[in-house]
Amino acid sequence: MFSDSRPFTLSDLSLMIQILAFVVLLYAIYCKRKSMAKHGKIAEVTFYLVSTSVIYMLYSRGRGFILPYYNSLLGLHMLLGTLTIFFGILFVTNRWKWKVKKYMDLEILLWTGTFLLGVTVYLLFFGLIFS
């Protein structure tokens, strides 16, 4: 993923945070079977962990980050990410009428889609695929 030809950047750190958060989220889903309280706490930590990375992404976008030839992919990533954050806020702030399985399943699908698109955007931006 990281090569000797370029220095470590904040984008690399952001990706590492996203990967860590996704793995922790999968662990939170696993914990759901044993303890809903533990599941909720771990998922909440995951949301806050991702929030630090999202702030950096918003900063990058504000500075004019573009992805030549792939801006529709970036737009889809941003749309899914916005929806993911919206649902995450509802769950973390304990809006109980939203805390039902169908909405949480939707959140997992959105988060997974956003994560995979984000990794793809990263790989395209740094020329690691289709360069």
TrEMBL record:
Q: Which UniProt keywords apply?
A: Membrane, Transmembrane, Transmembrane helix
Enumerate the transmembrane spans. Answer: 13-30, 42-59, 74-96, 108-130
Q: Which domain of life is it from?
A: Archaea
Q: What is this protein's name?
A: DUF420 domain-containing protein
